[in-house]
Sequence to fold (310 residues):
Amino acid sequence: QRKIILDADPGHDDAIAILLAANSPEIDLLGITTVAGNQTLEKTTLNARRVCSVAGIKVPIARGMDRPMVRRQIIAANIHGDSGLDGPAFGDPTVDVIGMHAVNFIIETLRKSEGDITLVPTGPLTNIAMALQLAPDIREKVQEIIFMGGAYGFGNTTPGAEFNIYADPEAAKVVLHSGIPLTMVGLDLTHQATATPDVLEKIKAIDTPLANTVVELLEFFSKTYYEVFGFPAPPVHDPCTIAKIIDPGVFTTKHVYVDVDTKSELNYGRTVCDFYGVLDKRPNCHVAIDLDKDRFWQLVIKAVERYKPA
Ligand code: BDR
Ligand code: CA
Fold:
């Protein structure tokens, strides 16, 4: 079992990442930390509690940073709605957050560990960067960071930048230069993880309350992705990170040097990936390239099936 901390800003695809991480035998989910991103911290934290409540997930949830390190805050209400998790009707959550700040939870959990914890950020990298700045000693305790963010191709928030990185480029800078083994699961990969009608049919067929909630999440996500980007099916970005841990063969990667632009006007927040090695720098990041889409959805569908109604 791989020990992970999932750092998320739920978010429709974050919600699915939580479900996959919490109910896959290959993964030991030590905790969920929340960060401002798709919506305000208040809303993303409530959403993490909602998802854990409907699914019966009992892991520590810690509230994290409510704003980026340097830049002005942005949110993605155009994609995730006013609640950050529009679509299904959620009752009052039955699980609460712990009393510790997410940044401290990350630091303390790593310090107590044997160096065998993987951090999985699926939102802006603020909590992770803050933890590294506050406690540089944890660097050697992190086995790996597998983050959803960035792109070597086009951006989705500006022509050059992907949302999670654009929402806190200075935090991404800290992480990219941390020396920790990194895997970047960018848009180039996640745009292959589309929830096409055949996928929706399979999840519908599970026919449990949780599966129906997942369908409602994906239907809302389909609608906004069509309206905003004209995509025929929505890319379900965040669970691709978890899928890689469960099944390392689910996508291919290339080890290259990656940096983030924090200076330019047009390309602020763009991840710059040196595929041809023209900078002659040591590769610092495994960049995700090709997804086995069927294998990916198999993992998600199996995990949803494992949730039994209470
Ligand atoms: C990323 O941005 C968010 O809207 C999604 O949850 C995902 O983490 C995709 O750019
Ligand atoms: Ca996210």
